[in-house]
Task: inverse folding
């Protein structure tokens, strides 16, 4: 086979016929379309119409669902467990007579209502506010001094605590120099605050009064009790014109529990011992007795006690509570120089001289088992606990006196 000049083989294709099928499905230009049958045309129209209707229905349903509100869920049902079926009271038939709303329900209906269980569980969705029916306000200060009568069992300490003032305030404003001689029914002036209630006996300025009681003049002027807010420190107050409250004022007046007359006689030349001593007066006094008889060592006068009151400027010993009749022993060896009734509030009392400079006192006894001038050993039985004299209950009042002056037994004996 021969090739042409362009290296192409001499191949020729037959002419295209109109009956040939185009592989691409595209008819040649200028060709004629096959005719469409009426049945195919009707079927196509029906399918198109159905698709349009289906799309329209879906759109309508979509917009209806989006515009319709969600239904409200029903309220939850609360089930209350009971042990037995609850009977529901039968409603009384209506009557023509008007109902009195102030009348309580019938007894059987009330009983049924009260028998029904009550759900007291607090809801966690509700805030509850607790309320009180009334307000408790602290009492305010008194506006003026008052008169108070001493009662059975009272002491200066108890009275001061009752009115929230110091013992000094009571002593400074009353004639109670001898505290242990307080008698039931004796009136006391009780101030509303600590300080001095003062009546000038001569013409004095506010400043002079303030200097006398060691306070500022303006504490007197500003005090609501004096009504002197417009005054000045130089204001002259006439004698016996008015009583002045001096808040915080202090006085040199002191209280005394028992300051008995004590006399001593020196020992005769060449004699041993500390001579003689006479302690106090009244029924219990033993007159002159030997001043001493011991070595000065001390022990406890009672055992298994309750310490109820200590030593202060208004209490010259310690109070040790025990039942009435409990034994009391001598704290140390010595001579009895007082045994009997004390007119100074101690009731039945005993005083023992241990050395010329040391003595002990035992007060409020229910029984005395020693006599004047008796020499006793340490821990010897001398009497019994009681509540005689000015006492608030069964206890032993125990004092230690050095050089005739009361001292704190706790410091001398190392504790109680």
Result:
């Amino acid at each position: 086979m021969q090739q042409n000049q362009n290296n192409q083989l001499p191949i020729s294709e037959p002419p295209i016929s109109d009956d040939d099928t185009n592989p691409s499905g595209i008819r040649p230009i200028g060709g004629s379309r096959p005719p469409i049958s009426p049945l195919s045309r009707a079927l196509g129209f029906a399918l198109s119409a159905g698709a349009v209707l289906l799309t329209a229905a879906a759109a309508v349903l979509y917009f209806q669902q989006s515009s319709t509100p969600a239904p409200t869920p029903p309220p939850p049902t609360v089930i209350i467990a009971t042990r037995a079926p609850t009977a529901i009271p039968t409603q009384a038939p209506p009557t023509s007579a008007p109902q009195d709303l102030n009348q309580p329900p019938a007894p059987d209906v009330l009983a049924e209502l009260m028998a029904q269980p009550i759900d007291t569980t607090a809801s966690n969705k509700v805030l509850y506010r607790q309320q009180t029916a009334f307000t408790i306000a602290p009492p305010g200060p008194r506006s003026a001094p008052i008169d108070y009568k001493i009662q059975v069992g009272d002491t200066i300490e108890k009275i001061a605590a009752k009115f929230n003032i110091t013992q000094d305030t009571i002593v400074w404003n009353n004639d109670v120099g001898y505290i242990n001689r307080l008698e039931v029914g004796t009136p006391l002036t009780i101030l509303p605050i600590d300080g001095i209630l003062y009546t000038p006996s001569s013409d004095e300025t506010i400043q002079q009064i303030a200097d006398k009681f060691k306070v500022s003049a303006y504490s007197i002027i500003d005090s609501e009790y004096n009504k002197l807010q417009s005054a000045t420190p130089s204001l002259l107050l006439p004698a016996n014109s008015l009583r002045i409250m001096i808040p915080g004022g202090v006085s040199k007046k002191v209280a005394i529990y028992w300051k008995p007359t004590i006399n001593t006689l020196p020992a005769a030349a060449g004699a041993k011992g500390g001579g003689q001593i006479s302690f106090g007066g009244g029924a219990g006094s033993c007159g002159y007795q030997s001043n001493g008889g011991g070595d000065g060592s001390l022990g406890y006068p009672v055992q298994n006690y309750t310490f109820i009151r200590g030593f202060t400027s208004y209490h010259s010993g310690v109070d040790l509570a025990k039942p009435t009749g409990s034994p009391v022993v001598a704290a140390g060896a010595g001579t009895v120089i007082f045994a009997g009734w004390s007119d100074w509030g101690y009731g039945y009392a005993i005083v023992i001289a241990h050395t010329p400079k040391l003595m002990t006192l035992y007060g409020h006894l229910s029984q005395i088992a020693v006599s004047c001038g008796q020499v006793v050993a340490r821990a010897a039985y001398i009497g019994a606990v009681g509540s005689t004299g000015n006492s608030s209950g069964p206890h032993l009042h125990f004092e230690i006196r050095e050089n005739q002056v009361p001292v704190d037994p706790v410091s001398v004996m190392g504790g109680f």
Notes: Residues 1-9, 19-31 have pLDDT under 50 and may be disordered. The chain has seven helices and 19 strands. The radius of gyration is 56 Å. Helices lie at 38-67, 107-115, 156-163, 167-172, 206-212, 217-221, 409-413.
